[in-house]
Design goal:
Blueprint lengths: L2 H14 L1 H6 L2 E5 L4 E6 L5 E3 L4 E2 L1 H21 L7 H10 L1 E9 L7 E11 L3 E10 L4 E10 L2
Helix pairs in contact: 1-3
Length: about 150
């Protein structure tokens, strides 16, 4: 696969993952500087039915997804043209090593935007900072994720 085809291919792959589809996630930005994932409010994502707020596990999962996506972008920037089989092998070995989630406010809103940026990347590990906001720009959570990329 040619280098300029990698990012759209990966974004589409993330959009098609069953768990990401269950959460309603859609990749809306994916480049070398930032990854962005959006999803809409849905009743099945509620963690507190009295307050009608997002479940903390949903928040942590979304931060992990967007952080992982950013880590993949970081790793892809080192690839040139790559065979599909080699790409699949490399992607299959990438994983989350550690993630920390800080919950800042209740997860209220109609749409949610998760973003990630690379803090540091190396040949084996990538560290990303992730944030979750609602459509009004209210900061709901932040995270730091460490990902195996090599």
């Amino acid at each position: 696969m040619h280098a300029d085809q990698l990012l759209p291919f990966i974004a589409n792959t993330f959009d098609q993952m069953p768990f990401n589809r269950l959460l309603g996630l859609k990749v809306t930005r994916f480049d070398e500087q930032q990854a962005e994932v959006r999803f809409d409010w849905a009743g099945q994502l509620v963690g507190n039915p009295v307050q009608q707020i997002l479940h903390g596990g949903v928040i942590a999962s979304v931060l992990d997804v967007v952080g992982g996506l950013m880590a993949v972008s970081s790793a892809l920037s080192r690839f040139g043209d790559i065979a599909d089989a080699e790409l699949a092998e490399k992607l299959g070995k990438m994983s989350t090593i550690d993630i920390r989630t800080d919950y800042l406010r209740p997860g209220r809103g109609q749409q949610f935007i998760a973003t990630a940026q690379v803090i540091r990347t190396g040949n084996k590990v990538c560290v990303c900072r992730m944030e979750l906001h609602n459509e009004q720009g209210i900061h709901i959570a932040l995270g730091t994720g460490t990902y195996l990329v090599g």
